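Q: Structure for this?
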Amino acid sequence: MIPALLFMLGIGAVCGIVLSLSSKVFYVYEDPRIAQVENNLAGANCGGCGYAGCSAAAQAVVSGIEPPSVCVISGKEGVEEVAKIMGVDAGSAESPLSYNMCEGGFRADDKYYYMGISSCKAMAVVFGGKRVCGVGCIGLGDCVKACQFDAVKLGPNGYPVVDDDKCVGCGACQQACPKDIIEVKTLSEKLMKFNQEHDPLAPCAQTCPAEINIPRYINQLKEGKYKEAVQTIRMRNPLPLACGRVCPHPCEDECRRGIEDEAVSINQLKRFVADFEMNSGSRIPIKCAPDTGKKIAVVGGGPSGLSCAFFLRRIGHQVDIFEAMPKLGGMLRYGIPEYRLPKKVLDWEIQGILDLGIKSFCYVKLGADFGLGSLMASGYNAVFLGVGAWEDYSLGIDGENLIGCFTGIDFLQRISSGEKISLGKTAAVVGGGNTAVDCARTLLRLGLDKVYMVYRRTRKEMPANEVEIVASEEEGIDFVFLAAPTKVIGDDSDNVTHLEYLKMELGEPDASGRRRPEPIEGSETMLDVDMVISAIGQSPDASFKEQDPHPRMTELELTRWNTVDNDPATMQASIPYIFTAGDAATGPSLVVDAIGGGRRAARSIDLFLKGKPVEPLKDSLQNKRIRESIFTKVDGIKKSARAKMPELPVEQRLDSMAEVDLVLPEDVAHKEAERCLNCCRICYNPDTDFPMAKAN
Amino acid sequence: MREMISMIVVLTVLTAVSGGLLAAVKSGTEVRIENQVLKFQKAPAIQDIFPEATNDPLAERFTVKTDDIELQIFPSLLSDGSKAIAFETKGSAFGGPIGLMVGINLSTDEIIDVRVTTHAETPGIGSRAKDDLSFVSQFSGLSMDTNFALKGDGGVIDAMSGATVTSKGVSVAAAQAKEIYQKLKPEIVKQMK
Amino acid sequence: MAQSLAKEFTKGLWAEIPPFRLVLGLCPVLAVTKSVENGIGMGVATTFVLVFSNLLISLLRNVIPSKVRIACFIVIIATFVTIVELVMQAYTYELFLKLGIFIPLIVVNCIVLGRAEAFASKNGPVLSVADGLGIGLGFTLSLAALGAVREFIGNGTLTIWEGLPVFEMGGNFLPFQFMIEAPGAFVGLGLMLCLMNLIGKK
Amino acid sequence: MGDLFVLAISCIFINNILLAQFLGNCPFLGTSKKMETAVGMAMAVVFVLVMAGIITWIVDVYLLKALNVEYLRTVSFILVIASLVQFVEMFLKKSIPGLYAGLGIFLPLITTNCAVMGVCLINIKEEYTFVQATVSSFAYAVGFGLALILFAGVRERINLARVPKPLQDTSIGLVTAGIIALTFMSFKGMV
């Protein structure tokens, strides 16, 4: 008895002393959550999870590789405890879900006849699989076999379909897939996904500056799933109502149907589902990731700022928007006239974004009312600059300051704000872009008798949207092409009476491919007008740089066009915590460019806040095209007419600001959606069976 | 510091309590375990060696001690009236030590029979030494002067095929028995009286 | 209370029955299931250790510092294992010989430590005992079942307790010896696991 | 010397700890899903087994036998092994982080690996000398690693096969292990 007691006493004491001493001597700092998580794992070190013991599994959970449900022994309570510990961390508490990116690999041609074992991995070894498409689904179901939870099934079309309710996000399918087709991503990761060179993307989806998955939402529309279609669009674009109305839809230029036939009217379909949501009377709930506790200031409430704020909020950050104008919306509100984008629609859309929990402060201008210093002092971790391009270029001719002279954006903004302006009877709008057309059409609606558009080249060179030009022709605007204003002439009381211009002729094409207009000597002509509006372009108003007293502000570099200099791949400015996109970074450009830029900036801001290097995405597609996906001819197309956009009759337009472009009726929208070939990288659903079987 | 002390104290107290508890259980079961070992390990072997013993070799067991060996002897009265003893020696094989119960006729110095008592050899191969009587029966009737080594090593015993090491272990145990027997015989005979 | 008690107890018998649902504690399962008797013996021994170590650990759960947690648990478990070892030596010596090294190795059976960590160190003594009893009984059942399969195919008998063959095949039966050899243990367990999946995943 | 070699061969192949002695099967099935994990685990087992084998041998001969308290073997061995592993883990983490990254994470897994405890007990039961105990510990660990790595290789191939749903994962893993065990049986009678 005594020796046994003494022996055990001794051995216990020795072990205790050694362990307690060494835990002091060999102390190494590690994330305290690892120990907490480990305490909640079973501690049996059985290796059942595939990790080498509980501490390794705990590390994997804390670093976000594994879900809290990693342990095979610990029950539901254990998982909940772990989830609670991890709850403070962005992303990892979000449940990742598996999803499939290829929705039509089966349509691609075969390269060879495969007789090997029934496994994607095995087939992928032989020239990357039998399909001509190098990235698409092989369809032998390795992911189905890999799933322990019965969540993945091969759908009727031969590609895997994920059951979101059963998926636990374990990632087994992703590991099993040799093609990176099936991926397990959290909501945040999906929101921050950008097109990459190896993705299965239709030409339209590659072209869209916001990178919307166009074939998917058209497909959802086709199936009557309007809500899902809106959600698909909102993964990339927070402003479907606005975009559906004003976007010049570059995507339609690349539409594969457009090669043989008229392109699908993609933008009208977007507007159809977006309007459906607005008119349905209820908002579709927008999911956000758990809060991260980081705060970002978005300066400028235009499309880029709204987009950046929207995506940052959805991935769990706290966002405040600072806007110099009385209301949010930027150019959408003050640059685009009511008849193109009704304020009511815009208000509804912006309210939906603010409802996510974004605070906005209007009437505050960067530089004047607040600065970098005050933002930093308020605890913002990063700043997004989306101040837009509001400074109109001046014509640089005599008489520009006479009464009755305006500049384009300034004019539109004053009209939009409801300011009373003394108008004349006839007006000349100088310029050929959208702003000029907007000014001209607005003037007509304000009751002017005659509106001229003075442009120094011809109609063919006009940068404005074709539909806008056609509409303004219909509405009776007089075009004066090949005319360069030289002088504004006023009367004794400084009111405008005439615009003098020089006639031009087209010379050789210049660097931009447009034929350079050359003045004809002595061809001075007078235009009898009492208003002159110059809308020949804008640049950002960079006055904030001088006004902001914060010393750091001097480090912010601008380009010679006054835009904020940034890395176009990451949107990071010369001050690391400042990111910028939209017109402030690119100069005047499309709304949809600003939206795409805002999301790209959100990705970089997220990386920056997580302390990761702000690096460009690898193999990012950004405005490039996947060469193999751009065809010169398309087989199997039966011509069918493109849906015509319903418009308000011209006679009803001119006496009001009522919206001109109307939404497609439901049956027409469905018919239009049926015209979509549901393209992917190289495959598509042809109208006829020629040359390949439509379904096999 | 407090944490360190509590670590040491808790662990020490726990192990000490465990030690005490186990010592108590051990002392409570000690006698029974010894009997069980005799009953299950030694008894069947002795039963096999002295099938017709007229006494109870287990009950009459005694211990012989010399300077460095302590040996338990099981004496037996054979049916013909001659005296015999049995004792256990150990050889080693891969599965560990092999216990060999050797029965010796004291008057003729001949082995009556041997039996393997404990072993932990691979089932099916080494364990044949216990189950396969044709191997151990080779020893029956051999004089204690015989070289018990395997035939390959110059002795007289045939090894079991595929279990050379086990066979060697048995033969080593037998050789050890021979050595002990020659050394201790006078003492044993004296105590038998 | 009674309901949760019943729940903790019954979960070990089906929903979390080791080693099928909880793939743990495989070593003794594979090694000692040559016969039903061995299986039951091992199962009962493990159950004893599980119940008592669960009880003690749940009583001491607030005293033990977390850094030496594992060491303390192990000492408690090892103490009960040694008691089992001594008792088995004294009363069921033959079984003790058959189970051999696997009796002391109950200490490192992941089920025992797993339950201690996952359950006993977080729950009260009553629930912990119910949990230990349930899991232990489930383990015993599994061992007995696997033992029955292996013994029946490999030897043609079914023996519940020493010298009490419940069933014996006729003379023409050729035992499929593979099943009581080492590989048979793996294959047998693998196939039983498959069977469980088949039944359970309908 | 020759005897030690024979002992080593016997421990690696004939009495292979995983496939013939059934020790250490939980990590065998758990860590054989990925080849890299299997290799790390194998290395860590070699490392710990040799150390544990040596220390427990010393504890047994100089403490347990000397004090005549052999029945405390189970308790003392497991305590010593657990403390040793924890100590080594802390030591490596601080002093040799490179090695810790490779092996360290496998160490806690080994505390409750019955292969380690089992080999220590076998060493004592077989009454090995100090040198024999060291060699056998090393050889058993090598046998463990060999079987683990072989098995991990086989499992990676099985992932490509079309396995019926109920038989997937652990189930087919066990059947495969059975077939590997069958091949190891052919080593019997080699010495």
